[in-house]
């Protein structure tokens, strides 16, 4: 009986010592192996791609202009009223005596002039004056990454399509209308779409005309004829979502 108890105690000590010494080692070996395996199947540009606005390395002036333009859609998309700047005091608003008004406008920075253009009054449907943004530049500059990050930062669901793939104008029109008119439902989070059209310089002229017709589509409220109403339903409604186009050759 004594021998059996000693043997069982010895066996228990061996089992405990093996589990303590060997159990941490496989976990340490498996984690780097799993990371290495996932790293082998992940592109370097995907692994280190910017995830937020602050991680963007592209031109800050371009980033700010695109974000400012996208925020102009907040009134019609999210129902947010446009922020009104506080009026300056009389001392601040009065121009210096030694500097004429023409010279003040002449020496405005590029950022100030662009912001004044973008801050133009919204149209009757509370949409910005310019309905489409066009990003131009050589390949690898970060145009598509910029569009996705800015859209996500502004609260949109980025929907990307390649204009050179959809050569048929009918397919091109269907995809644009589906992205700009239908809602995207992702579980409990419902976000409006922001359409990103890549390689717009590779699209045929017929597809460009389709895009222009969608952009310039007007709301004919005064038309009361039945034929006009049917045509309006067939053509679709107003463009109420932002579109960002990307090209290499402007």
UniProtKB/TrEMBL annotation:
<dbReference type="GO" id="GO:0016887">
    <property type="term" value="F:ATP hydrolysis activity"/>
</dbReference>
<keyword id="KW-0131">Cell cycle</keyword>
<keyword id="KW-0539">Nucleus</keyword>
<comment type="similarity">
    <text>Belongs to the activator 1 small subunits family. CTF18 subfamily.</text>
</comment>
<dbReference type="InterPro" id="IPR003959">
    <property type="entry name" value="ATPase_AAA_core"/>
</dbReference>
<dbReference type="GO" id="GO:0006260">
    <property type="term" value="P:DNA replication"/>
</dbReference>
<feature type="domain" description="AAA+ ATPase">
    <location>
        <begin position="129"/>
        <end position="241"/>
    </location>
</feature>
<feature type="region of interest" description="Disordered">
    <location>
        <begin position="87"/>
        <end position="106"/>
    </location>
</feature>
<dbReference type="GO" id="GO:0005634">
    <property type="term" value="C:nucleus"/>
</dbReference>
<keyword id="KW-0547">Nucleotide-binding</keyword>
<dbReference type="InterPro" id="IPR003593">
    <property type="entry name" value="AAA+_ATPase"/>
</dbReference>
<dbReference type="InterPro" id="IPR053016">
    <property type="entry name" value="CTF18-RFC_complex"/>
</dbReference>
<keyword id="KW-0235">DNA replication</keyword>
<keyword id="KW-0238">DNA-binding</keyword>
<dbReference type="Pfam" id="PF00004">
    <property type="entry name" value="AAA"/>
</dbReference>
<feature type="region of interest" description="Disordered">
    <location>
        <begin position="16"/>
        <end position="36"/>
    </location>
</feature>
<dbReference type="GO" id="GO:0005524">
    <property type="term" value="F:ATP binding"/>
</dbReference>
<dbReference type="GO" id="GO:0003677">
    <property type="term" value="F:DNA binding"/>
</dbReference>
<protein>
    <submittedName>
        <fullName>CTF18 protein</fullName>
    </submittedName>
</protein>
<dbReference type="InterPro" id="IPR027417">
    <property type="entry name" value="P-loop_NTPase"/>
</dbReference>
<keyword id="KW-0067">ATP-binding</keyword>
